[in-house]
Amino acid sequence: MKKIINPWKGMDGYYCFGCAPNNEAGVKMEFYEDGDDIVSIWHPEAKYQGWVNTLHGGIQATLLDEICAWVIARKLQTTGVTSKMETRYMKSIMTTDDYVVLRARIREQKRNIILVDASIFNMNGEECTKATCTYFTFSKEKAQKDMFFNGCETEEEDVNPLI
Q1: Total domains in the fold of the chain
Q2: Distance (Å) of CA 21 to CA 10, 29, 105, 109, 156
Q3: Which domain holds residue 55?
Q4: What is the pLDDT of residues 2-31, one digit of tens each?
């Protein structure tokens, strides 16, 4: 997998709850490209629990929404907004797990409306939560002007994010 370079890292005023590395309250996700998929390895913590040792459903939805946005950024080289999200919680995710794996990919594209499928897998590889995000994408010109987005590239070398 190739690590995706965060194009906003170091930008003044960038405090995204999902992916800003300097947002102390945030989840600080990082992303990788694996073929058609965008992948994130995330480490749950007790501060994100709902019930005892159980990852809060709202945090799960946040993780899924964020990885869908990164699919748009990397695969389509633009930005946009989630206009609809359908989430299915199938199995509890434990905050005591060392990590979870998120995977997302484009399912369908109709002009500027994109369907992205995403899932969260526990350490045992079991699919626990899945979502489909309907994304409204901006033109590349609008993304560059209003979102300070000039594209999303990957690092040169393959990496294993679990090491």
Answers
A1: 1
A2: 9, 8, 23, 30, 21
A3: 2-149
A4: 999 999 999 999 999 999 999 999 999 999
